[in-house]
Amino acid sequence: MARPSVSIFYPCYNDWGTMGSMVLLTVQTARRLDLDYDVTIVDDGSEEQTRVLLGEIEERFPEVRVIRHEQNGGYGAALRTGFASATKDWVFYTDGDAQYDVCELERLVEKAGPDVDVVQGYKIDRNDPLHRVIIGRVYHWIVRTAFGLKLRDVDCDFRLIRRTVFDKIELVHSSGVICAEMMTKMQRVGCRIVEVPVHHYQRAHGKSQFFNFPRIARVAWNLTGLWIRLIVLRKDAWSLTPR
After folding, report:
1. How would DSSP label each residue in 156-182?
2. pLDDT level of residue 239 (50, 70, 90 thresholds)
C-alpha cells in the first residue's frame, strides 16, 4: 500500500499499567511506517486510576482520542465501539494489556494488499501460565470445529481489517464471543484472510478477566447461543439482537 491509511484502536479496561507505553509505541510505529493514522482508546468503564491516565494521554498526544463507556459493557461492546469509530481505510486493534507488540503492526501492513480483506495474526508461542495455555487450546479447537473456521489461531486479537468489511457484516455480541462471531461472519461473506505470525508475551500488569469459572461458564453459554443462531439456524447478523 502507498501510505497506508489505518485507524488504530485499543479496548481498555483498567489497563493503567500498560496503556501509556502502548500509546507511545503506537505513535512511534505509525510515524516510522509513514501511516495516515488515528488512534482511539475505548475505555470500557475503567476505574479512577485508569481514567486519570487516559486523561493525561489525551493531553500529551493530540492524535489520540478516548471514547468512554460510563459502565463496563464487555469486551465485545468495546470492540464494536472501536470499529464504529474508525475513519481510515483499514482498522487495526489489539488488547490493551500489551501481550502483543504494537511494533509488529508492520508485519500486518506489509500483507495488506488490494487482494486482502483481513490480516490475522497468530501466536508463534503462547506465553501464559500452563492452565491458560490448556484452556486456550481447548477453546480454539471447540470454536474452530463448531464454526468451521479455517484459521490457525481463532483467539489472537491482533488484526488489521479493511473497514469496508463492516459494510457487509454486523457484529452484535458484547461478550468475548464477538471474535468467534466476527471471524465466522467474515468467512461467510468471503473475506480474503491472510495469517501472519506474531509474538505473544506474558502479562506485565493486571489480571485476565476471562480465566475464572463464572466467566468461562458465561462464555460457554453465549458461544452455544451463537452456534445455534449462526450454524444451526443460519441466521444472518441483522436478525440477531445484541446480547
Report:
1. --EEEEEGGGGGT------STTHHHHH
2. very low
* pLDDT for 212: 56
Tens digit of pLDDT for each residue in 150-178? 999 988 999 999 999 999 999 999 988 99
Positive/negative CA dihedral, 96, 98, 100, 105: positive
d(CA 94, CA 79): 10
Q: Choose among 205, 135, 206, 233: nearest CA to 176.
A: 135
d(Cα 72, Cα 81) in Å, to the nearest integer? Answer: 12
Q: Which domains does the chain have, with CATH numbers?
A: 5-239 (3.90.550.10)
Cell numbers for 235: 441466521
- 200 close to 148: Cβ distance less than 8 angstroms: no
